[in-house]
Amino acid sequence: MLIIISKKSILLSSLILMLIMFTIIMFFVNPLIDGVNGIGVIELQLSFTKEAGVEIINMWGSSGIEYFRQWIFVDYIYAFSYSIFFASLLSMLILKKAKDTSLAYTWVVYLAFIAGAFDWIENTIELFFFRDPSDFSSTLFFFHSILATLKWLAVPVVVVYIFVLLIKSNKVDINVR
Predict the structure, then answer these.
(1) Which end of the chain is more exposed for a tag (fewer CB within 10 A), N or C?
(2) What are the respective helix, strand and coil percentages of the chain, to the nearest 5?
(3) Residue 41 scores a pLDDT above 90
(4) 165 neighbors 97 (Cβ within 8 angstroms)
(5) Which pTM value belongs to this model?
(6) What are the boundaries of each domain within the chain?
């Protein structure tokens, strides 16, 4: 798997797609949904109680909920693109810099995909939540926020690991000289 996703074409195309989707989500879609700066979408993800979630979407109003439903596909594409980008970059660094494909290095590639999968599941649960928020399961809503939290924790771990690999590869280069 590392060899397949470590290609420059995959890295560059996923980077471009990720940056486009990030821009669309953060500067257009999320502000359109909550009517302010877009932080309301993240607040919903991390609200943990159904009551807090209902309060947040009530602040959005019916137009915000409708925008969410219409534009959620962008977040699915974003999750796909960032997981592919991070996995591709990590694979490239592992194969070309660390030269060690043991589980000690490759687990973080899977973590990039897991973060994207958690994002997809979280989005899907939110779509069901919007169907009937008052009748939605409090337990499932709590689980949704756990997944969102794990996603938000996984992404920085992946980024830090990228920096660790870059630092490690620079130390190897220094020692070789």
Answers:
(1) C
(2) 90, 0, 10
(3) yes
(4) yes
(5) 0.91
(6) 2-176
